[in-house]
Amino acid sequence: MRTVIFDLDGTLADTSADLICAANACFKGLGMGTPLDPVADALTAFHGGRAMLRLGFSRLGEVSESEVDIQYPLLLAAYEEGIDRETRLYPGAVEAVEALRRAGFATGICTNKPERLAEILISRLGVRDLFGSLVGADTLPVRKPDPAPYRLSVERAGGALDRSMLVGDTDTDRRTAAAAGVPVALATFGPAGRGVTDFAPEATFDAFDELPSLVAKLIF
């Protein structure tokens, strides 16, 4: 079965504000204020909790990996508490996934968000039933850009690797697709904007209504 696997953060949903808020909660707890900006630092947010903590500590002085390790579980707890306060699906995302499923495509999610948090989020957003698989950062011992999570997401969705593709928004997604030997389409509406063209994806899209016809050209 032809299969489309989606990244979550920055691709299906804009999660940056809630992610930044959770990271800033850690710094506030240390009496360090709020060094991260929900708009300016949105791209860092999509690279994960540890990346946000490292950026914040770098602005406040020296980055301590031991302190990052201490704060990371606190960040996850703060994020879970406010996981859908500001997060919204991008316009047209639901309609595009539904159109792909009507056309006979299997769909799934491969994300570097911890699996439990990803499950909570897409359930609260009301779209869990649209995806036949969900593989997170901790589902396997490795995470994107290692191709293993992508392969598992295709398998669990009931698809075939050689008739699949990834939809994402970062260089991590580009490298994942390359490692798996599949095409990738990158969204231009995330924080990286049209800068995603620098990653040389097979395709880019400016809005979700472009995606179904684009996918049909990339997966035969």
UniProtKB/TrEMBL annotation:
<comment type="pathway">
    <text>Organic acid metabolism; glycolate biosynthesis; glycolate from 2-phosphoglycolate: step 1/1.</text>
</comment>
<dbReference type="InterPro" id="IPR023198">
    <property type="entry name" value="PGP-like_dom2"/>
</dbReference>
<protein>
    <recommendedName>
        <fullName>phosphoglycolate phosphatase</fullName>
        <ecNumber>3.1.3.18</ecNumber>
    </recommendedName>
</protein>
<dbReference type="InterPro" id="IPR050155">
    <property type="entry name" value="HAD-like_hydrolase_sf"/>
</dbReference>
<dbReference type="InterPro" id="IPR006439">
    <property type="entry name" value="HAD-SF_hydro_IA"/>
</dbReference>
<keyword id="KW-0378">Hydrolase</keyword>
<dbReference type="InterPro" id="IPR041492">
    <property type="entry name" value="HAD_2"/>
</dbReference>
<dbReference type="GO" id="GO:0016787">
    <property type="term" value="F:hydrolase activity"/>
</dbReference>
<dbReference type="InterPro" id="IPR036412">
    <property type="entry name" value="HAD-like_sf"/>
</dbReference>
<dbReference type="Pfam" id="PF13419">
    <property type="entry name" value="HAD_2"/>
</dbReference>
<comment type="similarity">
    <text>Belongs to the HAD-like hydrolase superfamily. CbbY/CbbZ/Gph/YieH family.</text>
</comment>
<dbReference type="InterPro" id="IPR023214">
    <property type="entry name" value="HAD_sf"/>
</dbReference>
